[in-house]
Design brief:
There is one protein chain. Helix content is 82%, strand content 0%. By secondary structure, it is mainly α. It has a single domain, classed as Growth Hormone, Chain: A (Up-down Bundle), CATH 1.20.1250.20. The longest helix is centred in the middle third of the chain and has 30 residues.
Amino acid sequence: MIPNHFINNPSYRWVILTVSFLLMMIANGMTFGGPTVFDDIILNTLTTSSGESITRGELKFRETVMIWSAAGFGFLTGAFADRYGVKPIIIIGLILMSLMYYLYSDVNNINQIYMVYLGFGPCLIFVGSLVNVLLISKWFSKNRALGLGIMASGSSIGSAVLTPLYAWMLNFMEWRSILFWNSLIPLFMILFVVFLLHENPINSSINQSNKDNQPQGSRFIEAVKTRNLWFLILMAMCIFYSMMGMTTNAFLFLKDSGFNTQVASISATLLFLGSLFGKISCGFFAEAQGRKKVLLIYFSLFILGAILLTLSTEYKKSLFIWSGLGIFGLGFGGIYTLKQLLSADLFGIKSLGKITGLINLTDTIGAGLGPVLTGMFFDQTGNYQYSFLIITSVVILGLLFASCLSIDDKKIEDSKRN
């Protein structure tokens, strides 16, 4: 449906990047970011309707349901994408997300929320990072780190924009209406996918500058036998436990600290704007300054942010809260981009769908535990100090796994030229 003379233009890869960026905005902003603004309202609504108190741990278990649901689809989706492409997967995911938002607007108990988030799980896979990493890796060999960084920044902007937007919309309508009208956004996005998205470059000049569009790299069975893949998986488990635990509880933490709903919603904005800057800046630095060196620098920032937020639970200083959120997001953003980049650079794209699917399958263990355990530790202690201390410890563990990765930048760049 796309005229060949558009696709033949080497600049068309930036159109593909724009579509991927928008898809990441929707996949993450409409699941992880935006809906957290309604948490305190939903807690009160469910308590009123059921007559029983709903704890934060019980509510935050919804994110665990979503993430572990996503895990069940990761590997098979990657295998399907390697063989048939990502376009049909994305369209199915957008239709499913629209349906889940419509159903979310009518929930009345915690089990119904769990069912909605069970449906959000495959949306994260069908519309999110797995399919977009494959897409960008095919279109970008030169400046791949930058392309992946910009693509990944879509998830940060989605949450940074939708979270305060939903909070602002609460001034004019109730939360159910907000969810209902936003169910139309994924359906609108299908038009972009149908008319603009193309799986691969088709002309020789683009293929010449994107040689990795030909199947290159490790077979899946070869990658599984390497230490690098398992250290990458363990690192990912740690960073996603930490980021998901913080992201899904930051709004409630700020509400507990005395901030109103509009101000508390800025917590997500700071986290995700920091993450946005980390993702894009990492895209500039990783290939030029060395992947492992840059990875360890961003881990240091991630740890610093976690320490500041842990201190803020004791000293209640706004400076610790706001700077901690921004630095924490900055560190995560850089690490997230490098995780995606290393998946492609260390193993090539021959079996990248399966490899990325396996990484997603396993790192969801950490991502699923982060929200619910952080909420449960709060329920047990009455504050977030212990929860944030655990997050800091897990980030440090992730740094140890990252330091064990064997990354040869010269070999990676040579493989792109051959």
